From TrEMBL:
Entry's Gene Ontology molecular function annotations: monooxygenase activity; oxidoreductase activity, acting on paired donors, with incorporation or reduction of molecular oxygen
Native species: Oleiphilus messinensis
PANTHER family: BLR5498 PROTEIN (PTHR30137:SF8), LUCIFERASE-LIKE MONOOXYGENASE (PTHR30137)
Pfam families: Bac_luciferase
Keywords annotated in UniProt: Monooxygenase, Oxidoreductase
Xref: InterPro entries: Bact_Lucif_Oxidored, Luciferase-like_dom, Luciferase-like_sf
Record's protein name: Luciferase-like monooxygenase
Source organism superkingdom: Bacteria
Domain Luciferase-like: 1-313
Keyword Cell inner membrane: no
Oxidoreductase as UniProt keyword: yes
GO cellular component: cytosol
Amino acid sequence: MKFGVHFQLGQIPGQSLTKLYENAIEQAVLAEKLGFESIWPVEQHFTPSISTIACPMMLLSAIAARTNQIRLGTGVTLLPLHHPLRVAEEIATLQLISKGRVEFGFGRGGLPDHFIHFGVNQSENRQRMIESLEIIQLALSSETFSYRGDYYTLENVSLSPGLGTYPIPPFRAAANSPDTVKQMAEMGYPIFCASHINPFPTISSLYETYQAHALKAGNSLEHLDFNLISPIYTAQSTDEIRSALNASLDNMKAVAIEKVAPVWPGVKPGGKNASHKPSIQEYIEAMSFERLNVDCALFETPARCIERLKTIQSELQLSRFICWFNPGGLVEHEAILDAMHLFAEEVIPAF
């Protein structure tokens, strides 16, 4: 199993944006030295409390200039918000700069503000994503191509820059709903899920759905693989872990209540969902350190990390586990570096 590192770079008032980015680049450089295989910055807009990474490929270009081997993945590019030709140009440029290290992660997005401010109808996000995928694949694989779709009509397009001698990078979909999992399985795309969006039992169900629909569509599971992004932190004692994470997890909970709960699928005005179960806000408010650790995170000593990861790997047939060492955005930079060192030295060798 390969191991990656996930970045969100959430900001609270008073934090230096320059320092946030400097720290991320330093962490990426260290990740390569420690043997992590890949880096995956998110794409978010207009919500600095969640993330300040609006242009993940620009951040990856800076990381590419400081590294030599680590894979550079978008985690993920929100396709409905962009013209697909522009995305194809950026993929090709990063592939050239990095000498072939790109992993292209894509998704359709879910926060209403993204679509409102970019002037895109959110109800079209799935169709727009599929059309963009078709165009990007054509642009990267053809000397000249034309395309007629519902949203784009293109005539005799030649991408510049192209990929040169480098291959089309691997494509991978963010899939955190049953419908998207089914669609990507049928289309033959590898996927990743995020345990801070769906708890581990739900992800197990999504994996079963992925397998079943891939096989039904005639797609070999040997060519498809399943990745997982999870909040994680490791230290030699639970007390150390709590000390490093407490403020950050409180911030994570507050941001989730303010920004995520109101737009969660199925939630009606006032916070109650359609089935009259406890509101997502009530669920988030009840999330203790212990509950988070059981449901959606690995806040463990190295030995327990190994034990739990082996179980997760076996259940999901994981090919890559992507570590989010800074859930909530307030873990101190030095504490993140310490956790990365410990994870690389004591956990990764077990896999």
